[in-house]
Amino acid sequence: MTRISGIHHVTAIAGDPQENLDFYTRVLGMRLVKKSVNQDDPGTYHLFYADAAGHPGSDVTFFPWTHLGPGRKGVGLTTEVTLAVPPDTLGFWSQRLAREGIEVGDPVERFGEPTLSFADPHGLELALVETPAGREFTAWEAGPVEAAAQIRGIHAVRLWESDLARTASFLQDVMGFSTQGADEGWHRFECAGGGSGTIADIREFAGSRRGSWGRGSVHHVAWRVSDETAQLAVCRALEESGRQPTPVIDRFWFKSVYFQEPGGVLFEIATDGPGFGIDEEIERLGERLILPPWLEPQRMQIEAALPSLAAT
Fold it and tell me: 125-130 and 153-161 as β-strands: parallel, antiparallel, unpaired?
């Protein structure tokens, strides 16, 4: 059986990078733990927001591709990122978001969990879900949100699929997920024993058009494995199932493999380590532009092409 232990990170596409930075650090109170560039497009930032220590499973990352128009919602895409917050904090978050001009509705229950939905300034669909304590988390003591209400990490992702049965079979038979029932047309799957940070919620829209990437859309979902040995085991299972994973790619802070699940959603398998502390002290994460070693010789050209970012 494969050895996936949960969500590692989610990467989405943003618009203006300063607006993105302001929202995730100042409004949502997440810490910028790595300011880098898209390794395949070094003229674009890659911004990582997480808890104070950058634990795997806590980070939402962005490519600010300002030239792209809005994404088109449809099947074959991840359509929402759900973030975990402590119990009895949705009232706090509702008021905070409303003060910032973010449109929010009343909390609802999904799978018995109190949930508050909204969108970021570039259209990415988000939700906050009250979850019990128990997951890895380090509070950002210098952040604008009190520690008792801070976002704990990624709780779940929501996917639109054209064929539920095909994706469900893949998740269970190849990736080791288990089914956890349905709610309002959404079907829940969990890995590694379940709980916050292990969840994929899927809804079938048979016959609907395929979605497309753009500003405000999720680019890919990365799933966690402990190390390279576990990653290779997952790759073997993917190949045996007919998927075509990429070779292992060194992202410096973790090793990555990419593939499309049967419905077309882009997935990644990412190792937990070595982690964001390999090239910065934990206390100084996100303060300066960090490049992987193979891009360091291009630092002057890269910095010249990037817009300036002001800390908030």
Answer: unpaired
Whole-number Å distance between alpha carbons of 241 and 172: 12
- What's 304's DSSP letter? H
Q: Are 253 and 278 contacting, i.e. CB atoms less than 8 angstroms apart?
A: yes
Looking up tokens 């410096």 gives 252
pLDDT recorded at residue 149: 98
Q: Count other Cβ atoms within 10 Å, centred on residue 65.
A: 18
Other CB atoms closer than 10 Å to residue 93's CB: what's the count? 23
CATH 3.10.180.10 fits 6-305, yes or no: yes
> In the structure encoding, which two tokens stand for residue 20, read together?
């993105």
User: Collapsing DSSP states into helix, strand and coil, what is residue 280?
Assistant: coil
Q: What is the average per-residue pLDDT within 212-219? A: 98
> Roughly how many angstroms between the first and final C-alpha of the chain, as a whole number?
45
Which amino acid belongs to residue 250?
D
Residue 162 in this model has a pLDDT that exceeds 60: yes
- Can you give the residue ranges of every domain in the chain? 6-305
List beta partners, residue 37.
Answer: 45
pLDDT, average across residues 177-194 = 96
Supply the DSSP symbol for 145: S
C-alpha–C-alpha distance, residues 308 and 312, integer Å: 13
